[in-house]
Amino acid sequence: xxxxxxxxxxxxxxxxxxxxxxxxxxxxxxxxxxxxxxxxxxxxxxxxxxxxxxxxxxxxxxxxxxxxxxxxxxxxxxxxxxxxxxxxxxxxxxxxxxxxxxxxxxxxxxxxxxxxxxxxxxxxxxxxxxxxxxxxxxxxxxxxxxxxxxxxxxxxxxxxxx
Length: 162
Description:
Layout: H1 6-12, H2 18-29, H3 31-34, H4 39-46, H5 50-59, H6 65-80, H7 92-113, H8 116-127, E1 131-135, H9 139-153, E2 157-161
Parallel strand pairs: 1-2
């Protein structure tokens, strides 16, 4: 496993050639899109070649482009919630603000990932079943109970199993 954060490596550009700087800048500015790209697509966007992309990710210490994308995704997920960590001597107001920020981020992320088509498919699936069973552990069981009550209010049978 790579020892230090991929995003930091891309930002610091240590020992990068001019082409590699262009590639790193593109990745940093288009992280989400890069996760869905092939080496050829990234090469087209950075005016390089697929071979240069492969050499670049190997220089960073990855087996190949897919390995690189997995680590990029991991880093993006870790960094998106890093500023929400609570420290020992933090004020109550600061903690409340961080929890509120986390709540907003989660809602926005959920909204951005759901499409109208997805919601219509979910709605149709719920209409087509007689009963909905929820399996959950720990804190998710509380969420399951909340969902259970909402499903029951909508007129569907439901159970929560822990």
